[in-house]
């Protein structure tokens, strides 16, 4: 395939800030040199538009709910448009802009000016051919993208889990079994009332979002290590955010920023100012999603377009959305809103419905004000303060040049009345279920200079580190425990060991299962070659492991065998596997059932019998294959989505993925609606505060242009687990 020549400079067409200079290093990463922070952001915006014009426009079109108007008018895209119109992430944009500090507003506007200059400079692009001349980028668009990245498939996962609880209850699953899967301890709920709640068909099944350009965020790892445990004697920070990696371009955009006031390098997201993870001279910081419950639902009693509040009836606010369509009649949709969020249903029809609210939905100013400060923080405590102000839910780990390490959770975490954790739906007519404010960052989990000399986050339960307990549905702790194991030994840590941890494929989950399965294999399958393979398996999901592939076959059969009875039909079980996040994000909830021999799920058959039957079924259908042969995917363009023949070079060939759901190097592949979805480290970064550089690797490249030499330039290095060096 034809590729444009490599260039070390980025040509700026038209007016630009004085003394602004844009260059590229040997990896294509833009280095932006300017006189001020605002001028740096102008240059960052220009580079984003130059390298990611298609991605910027595509994400904005999605967020605005205008796919049918500007790109492809299909019924699936109409449903995607309806979803984004429902979320209405441009709401109160003028109010948010008015709450921005003057310096933040200037900083945001500088990014917009740079993006618009970049749009004008990049005259030829596929997106321009499909949707026409790009509209000017505005601060409202920044707010839109800022909110999208904080909700989609992150807070959304919590909302889906809470709805799933209702769906299972309405399908007749017993309270006892529901309690084994969800955080219901101490929660009171009216089963009969929840049975009456009308759940309209989902506007958009999850697999449709996955088919769009939405980057599906998943798990992530980050950690910090004090100098007492490192070879250099300085603190180390490492981070590898996990999300859907089989899309080009990568969701992250890498840059180096230099002006007289500061230098910083790392990753931001196209359409958002500044850097979200990375390092300055003084501080390094990384982020993972925290799985705090920032989404709640309430049961609303409705009739005649009104909802009950105490003994009175109040009108909903009506919002009418007009979706323009290229090929069909325009679609008009009405949404009903009250202080509990957006109603899922039509209140003209009497009945009980759900309203749902995400806590940062109407906010954004404080987060942008804080984001501007991230690169200016001089030490770990300042970074704790700034990161804690961000309204979406993240785990921030921090290291500074003075050898301090820290952790801070961020997010608008609601205060609820005692007795209600927010997972089961509240009663909309009862004021005791209203939020009473938000926890201060100082009340959320946070740590400064932990006694053990390191701190790890991997989406696990971290409530013990705060006075508030905002997490009620954490992910499994296998990755966190494995990283803790590797950091706890006497070996001094360095950049190489950080890389080794990020690439580690040992599964503590498999270890737990094999402790039960191994005696069964020895007792009942002692002459079976496949049993020998599992017994000899080192619990690593590496490329050439047959044991990993066989264990996954067993695990799949066990899940289907146990989690399917008179209450969970085969159809419902398939729905849970293919159209919900439950098996993907919260597999440990099932593990707790399967690994407990006294679990309620083993009433018909014993745990011993279920494990034996699952292995029998797995071995009968198992074709000898390595994990690298089975766990494979292609990098595909987010706009063209695999529709162009491979020889054009728009997509990659198939590549193997190491790791599994429970390994530090996560390597999950799922197929939904005929499309593969992959979850792995989207980028890897590591910083030793004794150095002035950042060690990084991107799954993809800098550019979204298939003809650019920087389109897939880092894929091989990402597969190999090597770092490149990012220097000022």
Compact summary:
With 728 residues, this protein is an alpha+beta fold.
Secondary structure blueprint with pairings:
Layout: E1 21-24, E2 30-33, H1 37-64, H2 67-70, H3 75-87, H4 93-99, H5 102-121, H6 126-131, H7 139-170, H8 175-181, H9 191-196, H10 206-211, E3 217-225, E4 236-244, E5 247-248, E6 253-259, E7 262-268, E8 277-280, E9 283-289, E10 295-303, E11 306-309, E12 312-315, E13 317-323, E14 331-338, E15 341-344, E16 351-358, H11 365-373, H12 380-388, E17 394-400, E18 405-410, E19 426-427, E20 446-448, E21 454-457, H13 478-488, H14 495-502, H15 508-524, H16 529-536, H17 546-562, H18 570-579, H19 582-585, H20 587-594, H21 607-621, H22 627-630, E22 632-633, E23 636-637, E24 655-656, E25 668-672, E26 675-681, E27 683-688, E28 694-698, H23 715-720, E29 724-726
Parallel strand pairs: 2-6, 5-23, 10-19
Antiparallel strand pairs: 1-2, 3-4, 3-21, 4-26, 4-27, 6-7, 7-8, 8-9, 9-17, 10-11, 10-16, 11-12, 13-14, 14-15, 15-16, 17-18, 18-20, 22-24, 25-26, 27-28, 28-29
């Amino acid at each position: 395939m034809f590729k444009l020549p490599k260039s070390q400079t980025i040509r700026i067409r038209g007016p630009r800030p004085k003394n602004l200079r844009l260059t590229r290093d040997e990896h294509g990463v833009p280095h932006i040199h300017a006189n001020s922070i605002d001028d740096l952001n102008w240059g960052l915006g220009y580079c984003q538009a130059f390298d990611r014009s298609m991605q910027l426009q595509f994400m904005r079109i999605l967020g605005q709910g205008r796919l049918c108007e500007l790109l492809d008018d299909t019924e699936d895209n109409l449903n995607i448009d309806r979803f984004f119109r429902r979320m209405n992430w441009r709401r109160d944009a003028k109010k948010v802009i008015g709450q921005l500090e003057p310096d933040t507003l200037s900083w945001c506007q500088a990014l917009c000016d740079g993006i618009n200059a970049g749009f004008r400079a990049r005259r030829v692009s596929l997106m321009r051919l499909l949707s026409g001349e790009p509209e000017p980028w505005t601060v409202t668009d920044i707010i839109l993208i800022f909110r999208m990245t904080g909700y989609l498939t992150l807070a959304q996962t919590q909302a889906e889990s809470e709805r799933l609880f209702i769906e299972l209850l309405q399908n007749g699953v017993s309270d006892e079994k529901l309690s084994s899967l969800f955080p219901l301890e101490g929660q009171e709920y009216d089963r009969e009332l929840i049975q009456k709640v009308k759940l309209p068909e989902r506007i958009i099944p999850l697999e449709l979002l996955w088919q769009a350009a939405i980057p599906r965020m998943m798990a992530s790892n980050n950690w910090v290590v004090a100098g007492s445990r490192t070879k250099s004697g300085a603190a180390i920070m490492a981070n590898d955010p996990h999300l859907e990696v089989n899309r080009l371009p990568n969701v992250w955009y890498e840059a180096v920023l230099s002006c007289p006031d500061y230098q910083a390098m790392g990753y931001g997201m196209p359409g958002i100012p500044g850097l979200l993870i990375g390092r300055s001279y003084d501080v390094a910081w990384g982020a993972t999603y925290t799985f705090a419950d920032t989404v709640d639902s309430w049961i609303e009693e409705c009739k005649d377009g009104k909802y009950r509040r105490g003994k009175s009836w109040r009108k909903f606010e009506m919002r009418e959305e007009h979706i323009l369509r290229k090929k069909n009649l325009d679609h008009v949709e009405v949404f009903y809103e009250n202080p509990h969020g957006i109603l899922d249903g039509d209140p003209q029809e009497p009945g009980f419905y759900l309203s749902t609210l995400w806590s940062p939905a109407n906010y954004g100013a404080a987060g942008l004000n804080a984001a501007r400060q991230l690169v200016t923080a001089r030490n770990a405590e300042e970074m704790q303060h700034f990161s804690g102000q961000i309204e979406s839910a993240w785990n921030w780990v921090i290291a500074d040049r003075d050898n301090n390490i820290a952790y801070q959770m961020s997010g608008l975490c609601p205060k609820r009345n005692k007795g209600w954790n927010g997972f089961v739906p509240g009663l909309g007519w009862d004021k005791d279920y209203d939020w009473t404010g938000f926890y201060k960052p100082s009340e959320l989990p946070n740590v400064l200079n932990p006694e053990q000399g390191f701190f790890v986050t991997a989406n696990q339960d971290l409530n013990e580190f705060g006075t508030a307990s905002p997490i009620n549905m954490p992910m499994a702790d296998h990755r966190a425990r494995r990283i803790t194991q590797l950091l706890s030994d006497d070996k001094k840590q360095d950049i190489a060991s950080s890389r080794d941890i990020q690439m580690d494929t040992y599964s503590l989950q498999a270890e737990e299962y094999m402790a039960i399965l191994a005696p069964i294999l020895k007792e009942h399958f002692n002459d079976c070659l496949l049993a020998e393979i599992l017994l000899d398996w080192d619990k690593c999901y590496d490329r050439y492991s047959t044991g990993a592939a066989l264990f996954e076959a067993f695990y799949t059969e066990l899940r289907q065998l146990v989690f399917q009875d008179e209450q969970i039909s085969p159809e419902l079980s398939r729905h849970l596997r293919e159209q919900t996040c439950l098996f993907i994000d919260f597999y440990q909830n099932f593990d707790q059932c399967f690994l407990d021999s006294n679990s309620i799920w083993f009433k018909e058959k014993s745990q011993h019998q279920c494990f034996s039957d699952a292995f029998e079924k797995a071995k009968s259908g198992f074709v000898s294959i390595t994990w690298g042969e089975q766990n494979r995917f292609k990098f595909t363009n987010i706009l063209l989505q695999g529709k162009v023949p491979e020889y054009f070079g728009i997509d990659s060939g198939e590549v193997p993925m190491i790791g599994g759901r429970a390994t530090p190097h996560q390597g999950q592949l799922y197929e939904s609606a005929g499309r593969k979805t992959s979850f792995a480290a989207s980028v890897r970064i590591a910083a030793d505060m004794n150095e002035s550089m950042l060690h990084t690797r991107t799954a993809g490249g800098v550019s979204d242009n298939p003809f650019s030499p920087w389109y897939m330039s880092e894929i091989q290095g990402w597969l190999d687990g090597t770092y490149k060096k990012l220097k000022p």
